Amino acid sequence: KAAVQIIHGLMEHAKRYTRLAEALCKEGYICYANDHPGHGLTAGDLTEATLKGNGAVLGPSGWRGVVNDVHELSNIIKKENPNIPLFVIGHSWGAMLAQDYIQDWGNEIKGCILSGTNGKVRSLVIKAGKILITGPPRCGKSTLISKLIEYYNNKKDYTIYGFLTPEIRERGNRIGFNIVDIYS
């Protein structure tokens, strides 16, 4: 049928999408996913992937490096499966990565599914984006990222870290989990 590349969200890992991949494979699709730098197996022990202060540290290439990694995996998928179309699925932060990816390489894929993507762009988000893109590299906990997450999750049905699995939320509560600046 087609190949599907799954792009995970911030503070997640590829293994979190196992059920989705299994369901797609059962329907005849071929699925691929990778861990972004500082996430999942690239952060060390998968069960503690983003909870020991190294989660979401993207390295010296930052955002652009992750988008390039997405494209590199797409090239591998197309090389291994030259006669079938490629679709990309991005969730949350992965959807934002996918949006950047399709601006440069959208003509190389058949389609893109964006899940849990950003909504209306407001001035706070635009300003935050400019700061994150052009600001100097820094280390430490990002109050800006935490505020953005809180801003998007301020509905009474949601909690600030409601997108995390219960297991990760519980571990995070035990060790004082906080979002780490992704542009360190």
TrEMBL record:
Pfam families: Hydrolase_4, NTPase_1. Gene3D superfamilies: alpha/beta hydrolase (3.40.50.1820), P-loop containing nucleotide triphosphate hydrolases (3.40.50.300). This is Serine aminopeptidase S33 domain-containing protein. InterPro entries: AB_hydrolase_fold, Hydrolase_4, MAG_DAG_Lipase, Nuc-triphosphatase_THEP1, P-loop_NTPase. One of its GO terms (molecular function) is ribonucleoside triphosphate phosphatase activity. Residues 1-127 form the Serine aminopeptidase S33 domain.
